[in-house]
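Go through this one:
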Amino acid sequence: MDELRKKARELLESGAVKVVIGYGQGSAGKTRAIFVRKVEDADKLILTDQCLTNLAVYLTKSEVKGLGKAAIVARPAVLRTILQLASENQITDGQVAVIGVGQDGKLVDLANFKAIEDFLAEINFELTAEEKAQLEKLEKMTPAERWSFWQDQFKKCIKCYACRAACPMCYCERCLCECNQPQWIPVASHQVGNLEWHIIRAMHLAGRCVNCGECSRACPVGIPLHLLNQKLAEEIFKNFGNRAGLKAASEYALGVFKPEDKENFIK
């Protein structure tokens, strides 16, 4: 933590950035995002195993952009998000100062997108054994069993949209769930509306999710939303060879087509 605080102080003192987005101590022993704007507040920054929030969610917020150039404490999931946002023209190289954090918890000097790409290229982003086991369990179900599983999960949804708020790839200024002319998704929390919301959101994230797990951590009723996103991410990789957040200039698999794509109707 001393190294992190020192780096933050240097960036703020030099005027290289106006704010450092990092982790601080929250209530009930939990961590939270903090925005350090004064040099003396750099000592409030912490970096522990509990610091898992994907801080990149703040990079597209107008309130944060208004503070001036930001530095961000970035673990691998945050680094992947930065590259994915760059590929979607949401941020540009040099717009954000990255305080990289390796898997060993040590700081990494990452001056630009190319450096981030090279750093991430050395990390294995395949699903963990536990994640694979969870997906395999679902895949072994019959279609009826799988439908019942997700129906049971989605009926718990209270439509709080915490998953959307926590997801750094949900950056639309106005979400379709807020549109009421026409009313695309019912406001009330009920079986049909809940299913529509989660399926639509999962499809919007297909090929874009960086598997940070923030949606499941944010869900107050414990819906394993990450399983949907992981499944779609694996299908995208299997069929198109793309993993989100590894290149600052990459194509969105569901937004382009190639003559060699498997579906004949495309040709």
